[in-house]
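Listing S7. Sequence submitted for prediction.
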Amino acid sequence: MAEDRVLHVTDAAGNEGRGWIEERPEGSVLVVRYGDGLEQRYPVEALRDAGNGRYRLELDDLEIGALEAVADEAERRVIPLVAEEARVGKREHHTRVVVHKAVETRTETLEVPLHRTEVEVKRVPVNRVLEEPAEVRTEGDTTIIPVMIERPVVYTEIVLVEELHLIRRELSETYREDVTLREEVVSVEREALEDA
């Protein structure tokens, strides 16, 4: 790898940084600078290709003791790093499943729209003489069915048999009758008085 090539590196703890390889008299060293400015040096052998231009660090216990950390170029100190590795395995586990089936009942209310037609029979007396039979007719929602009967009809005639003529006459006559009438009559008598 070229020394000026920048690598995207992820360490064992999942921290990401930008790394490059420095050539030293004692050999090649991988330098990784993290986001907080801390630089760490790793053996180049710990670098593994993760694909898509990314790399990961895989360190064992012997390599961890040889690492050195630099906060800036004026001060250097050795920081031992410890990384935990997670190992994932699998094993078969058999479980017995018992299925119980039961019948449950529930009540549901179903609503179904029902349509019906109601017919109201209304008897309307008419008693009218027709010249010819009436037909069934419809007025709006009402169907009118005529009910007819035939009946004998006796006709009567008024015959002028005679006339009575009343003749009025004005008559005058003298009526005579003897009538007894009573009347009171008063008579006055005067008598002379003797001297004493």
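Caption to Listing S7: primary sequence and predicted structure tokens for the chain studied. Residues 131 and 150 are 12 Å apart (CA to CA). The chain has one helix and ten strands.
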